Amino acid sequence: MNKESKQKDYSKAERIKIHQPDASKADRFNPRNQIYVRAVDGLWTRLRRRLGWVAMAFFLVLPWLPWGNRQAVWFNLAEQKFHVFGLTIWPQDLTLLAALFMIAAFALFFVTTYLGRVWCGYTCPQTVWTFIFIWFEEKLEGPRNKRIKMDQMPWDFDKVWRKTAKHSAWLLISFITAMTFVSYFVPSREVYPDVLTLNASGAVYFWVIFFTFATYGNAGWMREIMCIHMCPYARFQAAMFDKNTYIVGYDVKRGETRGPRSRKADPKELGLGDCIDCDLCVQVCPTGIDIRNGLQYECINCGACIDACDQTMDRMGYPRGLINYTTESKLEGKQEKVMRPKLVGYGVVLSIMILVFIYAAATISPLRIDVIRDRNALYRENNQGLIENTFTLKILNKTEQKHNYQLSVEGLNDYRWYGEQQVTVEAGEVMTLPISVAVDPVNLSGTMTDISIRIVSLDDAKVETRQETRFFGP
Question: From 429's CA, which of 97, 145, 233, 237 has a CA 20 to 30 Å away?
Fold first, then answer.
């Protein structure tokens, strides 16, 4: 029996097993194994690259956008104010920030259920910065095979200058990243000159150095270790997957049995599938997996293996799509279902939360007042025979302009106000104002009366608020 007829007699399971990589030769779970990513071009690679540059540009430019007399996005931790363009979020409004995080979480759940780990493959900062670092690595050290050979060679002048240039470029990118990140918390027009002229505070230097080396380590040295061993999303993503989730999948029925052959050879006569076992799909994978082994949690859905496989199919004259974005249902020959309960549920919850967030953000009051009662005595009778309650008012002007305010009481008839009733509060200031309210006991209907302290801006009548409290009497 010749070799070809023997190959045809293998069962499907045996043929797949024959072409599985030897785990003893390449342990992809060992963090000490370096992955040399091969450069590839194609539709998905270009899309990922463009999205990465857009995300990078957005990150770098945002702290430099002006908004009035400050930068548009500024998380002012010293004064406990978050400025996002025209919106100022105070500690009292941090429920908005919590809601924003919840929206981001459900958006991630929704996208993952529908499109798999596309967040990881296209927009995750770890992926964006890793591919930027790989780009510099390829430009300075050469393609994959040259880098492997260089690392195996002894140190010489060529290796020293290339490695030095690469790590210098990585550190420069990391430093710019760290400075940009710190600029979201310290005004960018202050942090750059202060750091470069050695006039910044110790805290600023600490965070710049910390994020410089964190970026350098994550994107330069750890790379796939972050995705495989440290990212929690990789661990719980399976809970959101189902058979209709779009994944990067290998068509086993079409591709097996794998094996090399010439372009002119007919694979059917050789008993082979369309996969020529070139291993390019493995070489271009940033996490070093073999997508032909089936769905794996390490796959970040970046599509690099699709582009590599499509190029191979083009050279061989075979149709594209041996590796493609697909679903398990489609690979099994079943009908795909787009609308399914889990996806609809995530979509409904996400839509509701977005609407609630928009409403809450649009209705944030630019003015807040807190009323604190005197805890030493519920009430006292003054020398005029009036029942008097003492309060401490905390008035917060949440706008970026100075305002004049008028204070009053609602719920009491013929009351007297002791203290300032018209006050001026600077932008972003919290004013503490002690006051007393007195009333004739004949105007009280009981020992406790519900009242409201009302405050309205004299500069803009639309800016007003009130705080409920109680007036106690005998």
Answer: 97
